[in-house]
Protein 1
Amino acid sequence: MRMLLHDYSGHPFQVELSRELSRRGHDVTHSYCDAYTSGKGHLRPEPGETIRFDPIGVGVVIAKMSFGKRLVQELRLGVELVRQVRRIRPDVVMASNVPIPTLVVLAFVLRLRRIPWVLWHQDVQAVAIRSFAGSKLSRSFAVVATLIGAGERWCARRAAAVVVIADSFLDVHRRWGTADKTTVIPNWAPLEEIRPVTRTNDWSHEHGLDETKTLLYSGTLGLKHNPALLVGLARELIDAGQPLRLVVVNQGPAEQVLRDEAARLDVPLLLLPFQPYERLSEVLGSGDVLVVLLEQDAGAFSVPSKTLSYLCAGRAILGLMPAENLAATLVSRVDGCVLPPDESSLPAAAAWVAGVLADDERQAALGKAARALAEQEFELAGCADRFEALLERSGTPQRG
């Protein structure tokens, strides 16, 4: 079957799924947005692979905080994605993490061309925008949220099938009238690509981290995150007599926030851009404790993929995030620490981290538990079986 899988973010596990479907004999093109800044997966074919990689948005700089400019860009990206469809002529399309204006363009053209498609619903975007309107965004964005919500619902109703990443999404699809075609398949991370490594490794040595305790965050920092919490946590630990280095791997508006806050609180900060994917195991392995951030308003409709990578890396995990989030449940299952994402949690979070850093056996046990859970939950074959069956049911072979 000829498949076009578009994951706007270019994240690792979506790439892994495309590779597996290609290995199973399907004609797979994996599409992603090159302009979107994030930690991306392994997006080039290896010798002998038949999978194709075809980016959109090459050379585009996304206007993240200008709604008008961003809307125009996302509509143009939709047109570019449609051109891919016309060129590839897939039997079925699957779309993940796609901005709603881009997705509306895609869904409209797929409907005209009678090409079935599957919505891989990673986040309820209207809920996310509405929750931040008036706090991190102007109240006019509440109107934007209403429009985005209408577009999101319209797209879901026109998809042949919907995959959601947690049970919490089902109530939304019941309200939209799409629950009868919705399947829950939790996200995962690539077990063979992200593996536990020794704490002292080439990457830690290159960045002078061999002899210092390290609090590490690697991933996106956007509206769903409060980066100042990372600096505040490091300051709490230093004040308690625990020397350490805060390491943040990120690109975007949060960089200046982190620099300013670190300077204000006199916290040693190593701030780096997203690292090559093939070095991610070393990056995560260089952290003694790995931190996840997620604002309370993000609630149950966002599962930070970095948490899944952290589990694969086999490290102790601290989550400053809503307890009802699926990722928080995973962290709790491996005896990690989950606390509300606000400043009042920092003393308790610092006490937990200090306890881990002071006990090598406990730190090792937490890491082993994290990796064991990843191996239990993230087995690729089972996930790929479910996606393959769903795509084959949804698809209609094109002729010619």
Note: The longest helix spans residues 67-88.
Protein 2
Amino acid sequence: MADIIISNDLTPGQIIDQDGTLLQVLDTLQNKTAMRKMVVKVKVKDLRSGTIKDITFGGGDKVKVCFLDKKKYNYSYDDGTFFVFMDNETYEQVSIPKEQLKRESNFLCDNLPVQIISYEGEIMGVELPVKVALTVTYTEDAVKGDTINKPQKDATLETGYVVKVPMFIKNGDKILVRTDTGEYDSRA
């Protein structure tokens, strides 16, 4: 499903279709001088390849804006080649290649609720919750007296992801990790 708007009305977050390529608008800049027509410079991210580039539109150019479908699924398991997600209402399973979810794989744990994003039946990716609770599988013990300037240490999580945590975190603790930055947030 798509709508046609003029380039002057583009805002960050919108998805545009340019010759069959789905692009997410990251930033826009409108430039109008006395001797030229308006120029709209748009920074976009290709949803299939992940590349970021700049494109330029003339003021008033028509642009096709697309709407992506989002559906709730829960992460089930990793079969070696694919990550498998299940719809809890219909028990339908969806498999997504591991190469497509490299960054997201750091936060996937059993029964994690996610949103699978698709466009006309093609899976574009997975939207994770803002914070995920993960168990610390290995971290060094705190050194007594090392408390100046909020010291941190490395901790390996159940997914294999390594994150910096405060010194009081121990093996077996559950912590919240932000999925947007990949940083420690708090204890769970």
Note: The two ends are 40 Å apart (CA to CA).
